[in-house]
Design a protein that fits this description.
The chain contains 14 helices and 18 strands. By secondary structure, the protein is of the alpha/beta class. The chain has three domains: about 160 residues, Rossmann fold (3-Layer(aba) Sandwich), CATH 3.40.50; about 160 residues, Dihydrodipicolinate Reductase, domain 2 (2-Layer Sandwich); about 80 residues, ACT domain (Alpha-Beta Plaits). The strands form two sheets. Strands 7, 8, 9, 10, 11, 12, 13, 14, 15, 16, 17 and 18 form a twelve-stranded mixed beta sheet that branches. Strands 3-2-1-4-5-6 form a six-stranded parallel beta sheet, sandwiched between helices. α4 packs parallel to α5.
């Protein structure tokens, strides 16, 4: 049966979890989408090397093929959807699609964070659009919010829980008191964590996503390599317990905030007050908290991954681009131009100022606390509150402090000196605190 003349034709490269979710929505909700758009979206081909595995969806005959070049070089296909992941050959496929005048939709945050400058430059040159809503926070429409809904705002800060795997692990540790290793194994058993979870638990996945958000929110060129990134592997149930006693939760937080000509961009475990809007975001859910001048604080919450939530975000981009194609409104194409240079610079981690949680293992001897507090004072670090647990002869016991705001460089130097004290056992644990200074 011939395709309808007014239809917009789509080719998908990659038939994994997100590819299957996208195909399910396009095929099962085709009539609904046509009613809303005024024209049909036609899934012409899906390319994947594995054409035999059951994805839980029955495709029309001839749709599933093994050669991506068939899609890239088909003059009838208007939109190429890249859902294979990774850097290569995804980058080459996207650039080939752009050169062939095709619009592109992708969920590939790693590719955009590391190669985005080249891709967006090619899209601008060839007058095509790049849709990437699914690259950050799954079903949460945060890309649309930042580049469209908040266009009249100056964004001041972004705080995000944008990795469901790490959030699930920390939630499990918080609610059940289990250690990191046990929580990770359960996350893997449930399919929330990969066999190799490095990108999730070391903060790399979050850094990819934050790179994209920072570029849109502050006009900073893609700067993945400049983002300070620290994972959750060193978090212990003991620190979670002490955080609770102070009235805090520990979250792997993506932070971006502007101060003058500097932007802080960092990923690390962070203590947040229980009262903070995203402190209660648990399990595999994501949340992004944005403060901007006209709207004030806003919270966006939802599922950050998965077949259907992410597929929904992909279809949203397809529909947006298809509307521009069908209406022949070249000026309506939503280009995302990331500048090659910026007036803003990314602040080094050494120069940030924040409050801190400190956990020392100290022998209970006269003068130990005064020596620790004295060294902190030498580096302009003042103590806000303190907890000391128990007394044991000849054994180190935990001493926990919360500080007022201090500079990271000063804190690192002070702890280096404290850790050399004979009365202190092992390396001091420290966590950064947000929202903790009155």
């Amino acid at each position: 049966m011939p395709l309808k003349k007014q239809s917009v034709r789509i080719g998908i490269i990659g038939f994994g979890t997100v590819g299957a979710g996208t195909a399910k929505i396009l095929l099962r909700k085709g009539r609904q989408l046509e009613r809303k758009l005024g024209f049909p979206l036609v899934l012409k081909n899906i390319a994947d090397l594995d054409t035999k595995r059951d994805r839980g969806i029955k495709l029309p005959a001839g749709v599933l093929i093994s050669n991506a070049n068939t899609i890239l070089n088909d003059p009838e296909i208007d939109i190429v959807v890249e859902l294979m992941g990774g850097i290569h050959p995804a980058k080459e496929f996207i650039l080939q699609a752009i050169r062939n005048g095709k619009h592109v939709v992708t969920a590939n945050k790693a590719l955009l964070a590391t190669e985005g400058q080249e891709i967006f430059k090619a899209a601008e040159k060839n007058n095509v659009d790049i849709g990437f809503e699914a690259s950050v926070a799954g079903s949460i429409p945060i890309i649309k919010v930042v580049r469209e809904s908040l266009i009249g705002n100056s964004i001041q800060s972004i705080y995000g829980i944008i990795n469901g795997t790490s959030n699930y692990i920390l939630t499990k540790m918080t609610e059940e008191g289990v250690d990191f290793s046990s929580a990770l194994k359960e996350a893997q058993a449930l399919g929330y964590a990969e066999a190799d979870p490095t990108f999730d638990i070391e903060g790399i996945d979050s850094a990819h996503k934050l790179t994209i958000l920072v570029s849109l929110a502050f006009g900073v060129p893609f700067s993945f390599k400049k983002i300070y990134t620290e994972g959750i592997t060193k978090i212990t149930p003991l620190d979670i317990q002490f955080a609770s006693e102070f009235g805090y939760k520990i979250k792997l937080l993506a932070i971006a905030k502007q101060s003058g000509k500097d932007v802080e961009v960092r990923i690390h475990p962070t203590m947040l007050p229980d009262s903070h809007m995203i402190a209660g975001v648990n399990g595999v859910f994501n949340a992004i908290y944005i403060e901007s001048d006209a709207t004030g604080p806003q919270l966006y919450y939802g599922r950050g991954a998965g077949e259907m939530p992410t597929g929904s975000a992909v279809v949203s981009d397809i529909a947006d681009i298809a509307g521009g194609i069908r209406n022949r409104a070249a000026d309506r194409v939503q280009k995302t131009i990331i500048p090659e240079h910026s007036d803003l610079s990314i602040k080094k981690i050494d120069d940030i100022q924040t409050c801190y949680y400190l956990r020392f293992s100290a022998f209970d001897k006269p003068g130990v606390l005064s020596r620790i507090s004295g060294i902190l004072g030498e580096y302009n670090i003042s103590i806000k509150s303190m907890i000391q647990k128990g007394r044991q002869a000849d054994k180190a016991v935990p001493v926990v402090m919360m500080t007022h705001e201090a500079r990271e460089k000063d804190m690192v130097q002070a702890l280096r000196k404290i850790d050399r004290l004979s009365a202190v056992s092992g390396k001091t644990v420290y966590l950064r605190v947000e929202g903790g200074e009155s």
